[in-house]
Each structure stands twice: as structure tokens, then as C-alpha cells.
Amino acid sequence: MENIEIDVLKEGVNGITPALGSYMGECAVVCFSSQGHKAGIQLKVITELEKDHNDFFSMQWANDLRADELKSHKDENRTTDFGSMAVAILLTLKLTGFTSFETSNTGTGIDFWLSNDDDELNFFGARLEVSGIRKATQTNSLDRRVKVKLDQASKSDDTSLPAYIAVIEFNKPESAFIKK
């Protein structure tokens, strides 16, 4: 099983500053920790809907947060949003050839435009829509959220670019990482 190091976001990646990457990574640790998980937990990643094809990654981070640091993360929705972005960015780096991220504008139906570091013309090669679930319920499940996000990403289908849908559920933990 391959490791995914959340702490690499502290260094930033192309299009994600070290400050933003550090915050996103910290949010992911809060989300995993709030569900009783420690570093080294196994994340199941579903890469094809309705097929039995899964990848597994060991999620790694250096330090759990202290109780006083958790005061910064009382807004569970915001923390889950940014934590899921951290995991989705790391999955994108592992599962696709894309290495560069650009935040999209509101209303495009996606969170990020994807390209490669070595693309001198800054052409976008794909889209990424991200969603997070702290703990799934019958009405807010991984499958349901994937369907919603597939529909949402259709707002930018006129680009003819492939779209990746990443939904992270922190309790089980598992993720869908589906190419549309």
C-alpha cells in the first residue's frame, strides 16, 4: 500500500501556496482525527463506479493537533471542505498526470482547473470537483454525493475537458475519485 503524506502540502504544490496547503492539510488531519483516526489509517479509493476496482493508500501525517489548536476548526463544514480539498489534491497527484492546480471561479461547477507544471502555455487539461463528508448518513452518502457532483460539474462541460469528481468521507474512511 502506497503512502500519501498530508504534510507535503506544507511545501505547497503548483498553484497551491504553502500557507494554503498547510491549512488544507491541517483541516484533513482534524477531519480524520475527529473520527478517531490516527496517522497511517487506510483510505479506500473507489476509482470506478459500480465496479470492484479500488485503490488503498496509507494516510500519513506527522503530528496530531493539540486541543488548543482545535479551536481554529470549530466550523465543521469549512474544515471538512478544506480537508477534503487536501485529500483530493493529493489523490490527483497520485492518480492522474496533473501536477498544477488553479482555483476556479464560483459558478463553474468545479473547484479546480488542472494542468501540468511543464505546460508553458498554461492550457488546462482537466477539471476537479471536490466534496467532503465528515460522517456519511443514509441521506448524505458517498454515492449520493458523487451523483450530485457529477451533475454539478456539467456546468463546465462545454470545455470538453475531462472532469474528476473527488468525494472524501472521513469516518470510514473512503473516497470516490471518478473520471467523468
Instruction: Give the quaternary arrangement of the chains.
Output: single chain
Low-confidence regions: none
Lateral arrangement of strands in the main beta sheet: 1-3-2-8-7-6-5-4
Distance between the termini: 26 Å
Arithmetic mean of pLDDT: 91
Range of helix content: 25-40%
Number of helices: 3
Polypeptide structure, described:
The chain has one domain. The protein is built from three helices and eight strands, in the order βαββαβββαββ. An eight-stranded mixed beta sheet has the order 1-3-2-8-7-6-5-4, sandwiched between helices. Helix 1 crosses helix 2. The two termini are 26 Å apart. 37% of the residues are buried.
Topology readout:
Elements: E1 2-5, H1 18-34, E2 41-46, E3 54-60, H2 76-95, E4 100-103, E5 112-115, E6 126-133, H3 142-153, E7 163-169, E8 174-179
Parallel strand pairs: 1-3, 2-8, 6-7
Antiparallel strand pairs: 2-3, 4-5, 5-6, 7-8
Key phrases:
180 residues; alpha/beta; 8-stranded mixed beta sheet; 27% helix
Summarize the structure.
This protein is of the alpha/beta class and about 180 residues long. It is built from three helices and eight strands; from the N terminus they run E-H-E-E-H-E-E-E-H-E-E. Helix 1 crosses helix 2 (about 75-95).
